[in-house]
Amino acid sequence: MRRLVFLILLSASPSNLFSQESELFTPEKRKAFADYLLCEKDYLRASEEYEAVNNVNQNDSLAYNIALCNLKMNEFEKAKNCFFQLRNSSLGEESKLLYFKTSYLVNQNFDEIADSSASRFKKEELKTSFMRLKLAAQIKSGMTANELSSLSNNFDESDAKIVKGFAENFAHPKRKSPLAAALFSAMVPGAGKIYTKNYGDGITSFIVTGLFAFLSYDNFRAHHNTRGWIFAGTAAFFNAGNIYGSYVSARNYNLEREEELNNEFDSYLNSKNYFVPKEIEGNCK
Amino acid sequence: MKFGKLLFLLLILLKPEFAQPQLEKQWAYAESLFAQEKYFNAITEAKRLAFFDTANQYSFKTNKLIGESYSQGGKLAEAVHYFTKAEITSKTKAELFATKIEIIKVNILRRAFSLVNHQLNEMEKDERFRTDSSSLQYWRGWNYLFHDDWQKAAEVFAKIDSAATLKNICEEVQKKKYSVSFAKGLSVVLPGAGQFYTGNYVSGILSLGWNVLFGYLTVQAFSAERVFDGMAIGTMLWLRFYNGNLTNAEKFAEEKNNILNNETLDYLQKNYQGLKP
């Protein structure tokens, strides 16, 4: 009886009940709070809480969650280092896959993924994810016809169709020749710009150059030779600018298409979470 | 043995009551961080309290404090999110009114003029806030003020006794403001005059000079029956400079007004002692 009363009183001692440290700031509660923050997408606070717990009780799961927070906050370098350190841990395979994803995101580093083999992964789901991420990296650097045909084996039917489309666009980008654009404009003012689908500029160039040429002709005909020469010089100046402008316009067109394609592909990969299973990036309901 | 069982049962039942001081302490801690302007930490501790407050006793307080901290930190979308949560968890009319006003204040800062107007209209129609019409008018004045409508802001503040200072400031700004249409109108009549009106004298002289020169060349070409030259110079040079002169006059007036608006808002932010968004 006395022992029972003593035990009860001990468990309910004021230091246990009223101390802040023992209640809301215990490692278990901090971990639970950090998990909640992670699911609430408050990654900075979640990361701080995980770090506080990890400083007391170090474990792989906490370090993995810290890396995840860094990844979600786009702190790619930090996340990459954290995942690299976890490569031989109990969460090694997940860390390796997320390391490659981060590596891809951090500086579009495709070589590291291309040089790695899927045999690093024992879990089938992660192996498939890695293969898809690797192919995505290869798509960006351009694929051969053989590599293109291998895409169907690694993706679902609907994804394979989309990915193939991207791969073909990367392998054979729709480009405009800057030299051809300059030549077209030399023949007909503004034609080079129209060739690069810069219609407004093309028409303006044609009208401005044509107008100055006509003014020059009109002044020469009326024997205003000085003005004729001034307008002829202006027309020649505008046309030279138009030829160079067409060359630049074609170059810009190519760069814009390249950027557009890259953005579209990145956006597609992002919508697919870079083929990484969402379950390994936090277990939130 | 019976006594022991009874004591054990008592302690189990009283456990939440023992936990209460913990939550109270945590609330005091979060509040103290807010008072020290450590808004990031205040949010963390308020969120921690909200997470462990399973009985939702602190829901209103924590959500409001988080909202206020986000608002102070300039994270206005997050602030509205938490004020809305506070509004849902409010228990009294005063709490409800306070959170609705906080949402309005944040929306004023976001310059969501129409939204604030709508929210204030809705509150004015609400029977529960019939006695708070003066407060609602006050925030309507601030809404006009942030919408750069100093005249209407002054009119609204004039109806509130305690807002005499704000009324005077608004009237002062309204007097100092340049009329954009007047600046443009002046430049229509005499190129460069609008720029003179806004104090941009060099630009005004240049504008006048270019327009006189190309106007003269155009007229001269037409008088010498060089119609094509006249049309080319008139449309490609004179008209271009004339249009530029109008755009310039409009732009200068708007720029000067923006500077005046921002300086006044900055002054109010730093020096006005009354309630402000």
Walk me through this protein's architecture:
The complex is a heterodimer of chains A (285) and B (277). Chain A has 285 residues and is an all-alpha fold. Chain A has a domain of 91 residues. Chain A is built from 17 helices and no strands. In chain A, α5 runs antiparallel to α6 and α7 packs antiparallel against α8. The longest helix of chain A has 47 residues. The two termini of chain A are 47 Å apart. About 5% of the residues of chain A have low confidence. Chain B is mainly α and 277 residues long. Among the domains of chain B are: 94 residues, Tetratricopeptide repeat domain (Serine Threonine Protein Phosphatase 5, Tetratricopeptide repeat); 87 residues. Chain B has 13 helices and no strands. The radius of gyration of chain B is 30 Å and the shape is elongated. The relative contact order of chain B is 0.06. Chains A and B meet through α1, α4 and α16 of A and α1, α2 and α13 of B.
**How much helical structure, as a percent, in the residues of chain B?**
over 70%
Specify the number of helices of chain B: 13
Q: Specify the number of helices of chain A.
A: 17
**First-residue to last-residue Cα separation of chain B:** 63 Å
Distance between the termini of chain A: 47 Å
User: Over all CA atoms, what is the radius of gyration of chain A?
Assistant: 32 Å
Regarding quaternary structure, what we see is: heterodimer
Helix- and strand-based class of chain A? mainly alpha
Largest sheet of chain A: none
Instruction: Using the alpha-carbon principal axes, give the shape of chain A.
Output: elongated
CATH superfamily of the domain at 17-110 in chain B: Tetratricopeptide repeat domain
Average pLDDT of chain B, rounded to a whole number, is: 90
